[in-house]
Design brief:
Blueprint: H1 3-13, H2 31-76, H3 80-97, H4 108-118, E1 122-125, H5 130-139, E2 147-150, H6 155-164, E3 173-176, E4 179-182, H7 186-191
């Protein structure tokens, strides 16, 4: 190929090499746009995670703030003993209604996989649910032998609960041998460990 022809072809393509008679136009996002899109998706995932986390902690935070306000009022009226007792009650209620009393949650798929291997029940729950708290407290130490799935953190878990409960997110839903049971008696759950 002659030097003149190479220069002519290079001039037709332009500086970036895109263009000219035989060039195909670039389709899809540029690499920079793909990076930005990935960062935006990551930010939305973080916001969604924070939203679920905040929803789980609203009741405990309100209990602590309410207890603190009532205790402050009792102290200003000259009743520090009553203030301390009330604050302690509110702190216990906040602790019981927080996600801290539940064993670490798994994703629904991982919990179902583990249940298939070891035969232990899967418990679908959500923070602030009085029936979930009752189940957790009545199970005591044996609660750690179950596979717990927080439906507010796991969309697949929420979908499994809706499928088992006619479209409702009714918890606790306990799955034993692929058979869902909604709000079962804690003693019954203990028997199936």
């Amino acid at each position: 190929m002659s030097t003149l022809r190479r220069r002519r072809d290079a001039g037709a393509r332009g500086r970036d090499g895109a263009g000219g008679a035989g060039a195909t136009p670039r389709t899809g996002p540029s690499p920079a746009a793909a990076v930005v899109a990935g960062q935006v998706r990551g930010a939305f995932r973080l916001i969604d995670s924070l939203r679920h986390m905040m929803r789980a902690w609203i009741l405990p935070i309100l209990l602590v703030l309410g207890g603190s306000a009532i205790a402050t009022g009792q102290i200003s009226e000259g009743s520090p003993g009553t203030a301390a007792a009330l604050l302690l009650v509110f702190l216990v209620l906040a602790g019981v209604s927080s996600p801290l009393i539940f064993p670490r949650s798994l994703g629904a798929r991982e919990a179902q996989r583990r249940s298939a291997v070891d035969g232990r029940p899967v418990v679908f729950w959500r923070p602030g649910c009085a029936y979930c708290i009752r189940l957790r407290i009545r199970l005591g130490r044996s609660a750690r032998h179950l596979h717990w799935v927080n439906i507010w953190r796991d969309p697949a878990g929420a979908a499994a609960v809706r499928a088992a409960n006619d479209g409702n997110e009714t918890v606790p839903t306990v799955v034993v041998a692929n058979e869902p049971h909604t709000n079962p008696d804690p003693e019954w759950v203990r028997e199936h460990l």
